[in-house]
């Protein structure tokens, strides 16, 4: 009887190699050849699971987004039931910042994806819906729930802090300090939450 | 007598081709081969002026930064002598946002460079000094001149708005609305400036 190939296992092996290449060398270095070498399989094997560069990029981002979502959910769960809005917001946004080794790896992949979609707008369709939902949720936690501009600004501030953390322009302390200062501004400097 | 090659002219020709490739296909698509094809010269000729990919990337960013600086200087000059701090800050930050075709092309190059340096920290040394100087200048214009966190946050907000403009997550109107809302927060909602 021929040995049955475990497709799920093989896909996971290749996906892990893809993420390692992306985190170490940048998403632009992700190619069939590189990923195959990192996974120890043939380029044809990689192509069986990811046919194009676009498919590899989209997959890498989906992994990063899933991990971010898990991080946020866990951090928020640790707050217990009904946390004050400011604390909830701070916890959520801080969990999205690339401040340790794992989140930095993921942040590099996300940033490379943003640069990639900036020249290929069609690839970024999913991002737009995610951003819209997130700004609405942020707005629902702000003292003035109808201030869409403040919510959009706070999310942009988080994104910019992430970019500067990855580039080494800001330290983790500076980034978190800027986030707290922003929440002070939005919540009227109140210590509540 | 042999024809004297105009090096400056040829370098400009190749540099223009490099910027066209970067703006259209992304900085990760910038290769000796692509740039040579776009300039209508040999790959060897491109290599004579830019020996490595790092040199091409760094050059592309220097062009983008020079153009940004000119845009900011011109926009600020149009304000006349002694503009109010808030108006000066708004003008400076809005001039850095990718809201039209030219600034979008430059923004895409800058974003790709940020993604590139996120996996190659040494390439980003120049960025860090530029960011430090800019946050200091921003702080000097804020009502509380010693608030380094507010200045760092405002610059990060501008960077994040730029990222979302390039990705199509925010429209120009939304981005400028978020910038104005932030200046309202920082300047106490005063209409001055």
Automatic annotation (TrEMBL), chains A, B:
Keywords: DNA-binding, Repressor, Transcription, Transcription regulation. Residues 8-68 form the HTH tetR-type domain. GO terms for molecular function: DNA-binding transcription factor activity; transcription cis-regulatory region binding. It holds the Pfam family TetR_N. This is TetR family transcriptional regulator. SUPFAM superfamilies: Homeodomain-like, Tetracyclin repressor-like, C-terminal domain. It comes from the Bacteria. It comes from Micromonospora inaquosa. Residues 31-50 bind DNA.
């Amino acid at each position: 009887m021929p040995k049955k190939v475990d497709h799920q296992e093989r896909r996971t092996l290749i996906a892990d190699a893809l993420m390692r290449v992306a985190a170490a060398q940048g998403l632009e270095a992700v190619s069939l050849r590189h990923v195959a070498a990192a996974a120890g399989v043939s380029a044809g094997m990689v192509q069986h699971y990811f046919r194009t560069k676009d498919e590899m990029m989209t997959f890498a981002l989906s992994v990063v987004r899933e991990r971010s979502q898990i991080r946020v959910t866990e951090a928020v769960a640790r707050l217990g039931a009904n946390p004050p809005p400011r604390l909830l917001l701070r916890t959520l946004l801080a969990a999205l910042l690339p401040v340790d080794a794992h989140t930095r790896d993921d942040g590099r992949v996300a940033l490379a994806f943003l640069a990639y979609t900036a020249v290929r707008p069609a690839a970024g369709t999913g991002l737009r819906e995610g951003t819209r939902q997130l700004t609405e949720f942020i707005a629902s936690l702000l003292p003035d729930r109808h201030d869409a501009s403040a919510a959009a600004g706070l999310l942009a501030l988080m994104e910019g802090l992430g970019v500067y953390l990855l580039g080494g322009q800001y330290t983790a302390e500076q980034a978190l300090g800027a986030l707290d200062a922003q929440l002070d501004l939005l919540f009227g400097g109140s210590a509540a939450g």
